[in-house]
């Protein structure tokens, strides 16, 4: 045999062997491997066959689904994504399939979705598909890891609310052009048929051309026309690559067919070159302007170049910014990301509003109410609640990016799954948004009403942006991260005379204060404060008994008595034997708090911040009181320090424990200056009064009001107290057994959280949830709204029902930050156990001695004065038992 023929035969034999191996692999080894994998994930039984679907099956089902007609009321998921629809509806919220040899997991389980989307280092964008698609969209979309962080940081400023405001004229002009065209069609008729889709396409494309390139808008338009052509060619390229049996021949090398110089591919590359040229010329002109000092920051390109320039300056290295090529990619991406998405949302909105005329009318009424026939402005647009609800519902039913794809590069755990390296992950927003378990039985229906309760709202305090948040996940993010979200300070300087201490400390300073103060609030230490709670409460009860000497009932406003009780408790527990001096201090502090309140109420007029320094009579008195308070506290402290130095420490009151802990801290670090200074100890003592007195006093007042209204719960609570203690003095073990009382106090703190708003401030641009907030934004996390939210607490959210806490707090909240009467994260209330024990002791003793009901002179008026108080007191009728 000739050598040539031999080689041919050998080649042929090798091909046959390879082909047989591929077929065996496909028919035998691969399914075995897949079955083994599924078993390792706990998936058993007959579900294998379907779950191991493949690309061919997906394409076939998609074609079939698209050939079937559908009506407007049909569910869209079976048409849009038939394969996954079948998998997910048959096998649950996670399904596995293989794209050739590559495992693909489709996930529609909210907790896992969050895990995947939150962790962008582990779950990266899945790239490396069709190389032609890179001609079309790259930029930030296609970057990962630190590269992405840099791009995002530079691009962010372009999308700040403040910048977007300036793009309003571009939105308006583009929309006006579209409307003019529709009006032309209607010149001599009252109605006409229009396919609105291409018009909306032109509108969104125009908006991007104008907002991206400002004055170079005409060139921008040309760029986007070319990009549209490229997008169309890309879709054709996608549709043409599938041919049967391809996986047996050379599956991995199939990609190269995209490099084959077909006419289409050549044209795509030609367009790309032209687009880049055009963008590069616009950028070069801009850079020349910037270098000549003439910057324009009103369009996306201008802001992007400016931000990149600042970034370079910040890092003192030119290579840190975006290169011209990278800016080109970002500009191309603006078109892709910003045009199609908005166009789709608008078209589905028009279709749905045509179907639901009632919502169309509601939306129109709102728009006409806000703007009449005038040009819409930013303030008005921010007021359009119904329109926002409609958009949210449209995006829920027709999410524009219905599938988010991620890729893992190493073995990774998601939920209970252990996924191998190179697994493709598909997060399906369409299925998430249509899930009945999440959205209820009307999940597939258009009902914007479900978005009527906005959990995030924006407002401006003068020039300062303020965001109000009552969404548990965001509340947790904010409260957990106290380095980024700091206490908002720097308001009224007079308030520093009343509250400072740990409340006002930040960063490392706060860490130190908290470490030194913590031991004072250990449960073990608080136990020893029980006698102080008892004596103070006994005094209050004695006064009420006196009033009832020769009658069986009398009317009392219990509010001031409860206030005295809690301030007495603090005087005794903070200063122990120096209690009388402590009482004096707290009387002075009360006077100062009242004066501060008056100052708050009277100060508002333009330029007001300076008027707090004006030496008015009130301001002088406040400073005088402060000096007196400090002198008193300092004298107590000095006496204590002298005792400590003489070896006679008393660790039974807050001041003693604080000084002891401070001493140990300085010793540990072998440097006296590390501990708290006397001045700082003074501030902490002042703070105990403010933080610990009103909060517990309010809780008790609301508890008595609610138990007067809900006599059944008052009876249940009394029965429990009498069962545990009879008429004897409550002790710590017994107090810990009071389950009904705990449920009642939890419910009172839910309905009337004494601190109804937690305020934070960010000092630099920060991401919260999906929002990127600029530096200096004020954030308000609202326990009040979180606690009253029907979505979280059910239909009886506004009602008093302690039963909901019968299985504990975590059972109701399911680990969410939806119940935060004591705040959350590292800055959670330090006095939580102290306050709860004090309230339990007082309530137990009150229930042992009296029954109570609402008086006719009680007027229900909760109001927020630092804490949530009963504005006109708590007038009750007390009965002696
Ligand atoms: C029912 C009673 C109480 C409630 C509802 C309550 C509520 C709160 C809340 C919501 C915060 C967090 C504020 C924020 O994050 O901006 C807080 C912090 C604080 N509370 Fe309480 N509190 C109570 C009782 C007490 C008591 C009895 C004391 C002390 C004797 C106390 C001392 C403090 C201190 C020192 C802080 C600041 C902690 C820090 O920033 O690290 N609280 N409290």
TrEMBL record:
Source organism superkingdom: Eukaryota
Gene Ontology CC: membrane
Organism: Artemisia annua (Sweet wormwood)
UniProt cofactor(s): heme
InterPro entries: Cyt_P450 (IPR001128), Cyt_P450_CS (IPR017972), Cyt_P450_E_grp-I (IPR002401), Cyt_P450_sf (IPR036396), Cytochrome_P450_Monooxygen (IPR050665)
Gene3D superfamilies the record matches: Cytochrome P450
Subcellular location: Membrane
Chief location of this protein within or outside the cell: membrane
Family statement: Belongs to the cytochrome P450 family.
Gene Ontology terms, MF aspect: heme binding; iron ion binding; monooxygenase activity; oxidoreductase activity, acting on paired donors, with incorporation or reduction of molecular oxygen
Amino acids binding heme: 829
Keywords: Heme, Iron, Membrane, Metal-binding, Monooxygenase, Oxidoreductase, Transmembrane, Transmembrane helix
UniProt key word Cell membrane: no
UniProt cross-references to SUPFAM superfamilies, sorted A to Z: Cytochrome P450
Name of the protein: Cytochrome P450
